[in-house]
# Entry
Amino acid sequence: MLPSSDSPAPEPLKRPNSSSNLSKTTNNPLYSVHILISTHPRTWLLLSIILLQLFLLLTIRSLPSATTTAASAAAAASSSAAACEYGRVYVYDLPPMFNKELVENCHDLNPWGSRCDALANDGFGRSAGAAMAGIVPENLTSRWFWTDQFATELIFHRRVLRHQCRTLDPDSATAFYLPFYAGLAVGKFLWSNSTAPERDFHSRALLLWAQHHHPYWNRSNGWDHFITLGRITWDFRRSKDEDWGSSFIYMNQMKNVTRLLIERNPWDYFDVGVPYPTGFHPKTQSDLHTWQHFVRTRRRDLLFSFAGATRGAIRNDFRGVLLRHCYDEPDACRVVDCAGTRCANGTADILKTFLGSDFCLQPRGDSFTRRSIFDCMLAGSIPVFFWRRTAYYQYEWFLPVEPGSYSVFIDRNEVKNGTSIRGVLERFSREDVRRMRNKVIDCIPKLVYADVDEGGFGGVRDAFDVAVDGVLRRFSEGPKWR
# Structure
């Protein structure tokens, strides 16, 4: 016998037989489901499937982070692949003697004094913001530095370590970068009573290291390798022991290596000219666009200007000729006399002068090129050249193909024979000047070294990006070593 319960026995389910009972039962959702299950099993199965799909859809929509993360990762991978269409860069981890220790010993790199200030901030140098106050827009003063003209080795090294196309797997690399500060290594010996072995010591040690430690160097004999040399090419082309400089470029193992230099040998395929570093290092696209707008709308009261100094030891020094031209036209030209070291690494006076003139005179420097070209163009002033090798045969990746679109050329011999520089420049209409200035200002992004890390300015390429893109394109599209 079952145990008794105090609960009343359930009533048997009755089929509704009155309007009252029908109302009570049909308003009950459980009753409707019961009838559906009992009389339409196939309909119930279909409904179950629909409800399950609805549940899954709502569940997925409630987890946006997972799908968004996956989509973002896919988009990032696609973007990276597009940005690195010409391949990736492997950066050698060289022994410290080839870079880090040279910077640490910055007090000994120059016979006239320490170079530590010049090499600070990864090659940008000390801040120049205080000196630029009142000359440049207030929100850009922090982007100006006393940058040394020979600092590209440090600047490139810092950027390539953070480049979006850098790879840690040498087997996947298209290009191999040697972060050797050859300019710093030889610089300390250029004005001293040094021997040829002293000037070549670091260079020979580097090539021995590469040959004995890295199969990637040996498999191509350096063809897919590149390096930044922070001085002009002639400082590395000593052919005889008693001559100037290092013999680094003439060493047999260097014959296939691409060299990025502030001045190239125009007849050497492996030399690539890159801009001298200026003092402006924008951090964002906004910095860059603000500067371009500033120089585009700047009022300019002078026709032309010249920043430089004579070289008394040079017979018929052409810079002396230009100085006389400027001094003879005080209402049209302004001179910044750079006698001594007054203009080393740029001065606020130079920038102010270039900002106020339509044209700036750019003769050759101690070699065919000079940093002043880039200080001039950065200020939105139109360069006037007297040697074609000063720019036209040097910076093909960075300057417009048509020289007349952004510059003026006057043969130096014509000037020596009496041609008036002022007369030549006054022939250009205001519209001509506006057109050329706009071309110069459009070039500015490719002439500056930005203070950025991975990704740079996004769609805007600075001098570093243009150089590395060019090297990768050259290696991927050029003659193959294997």
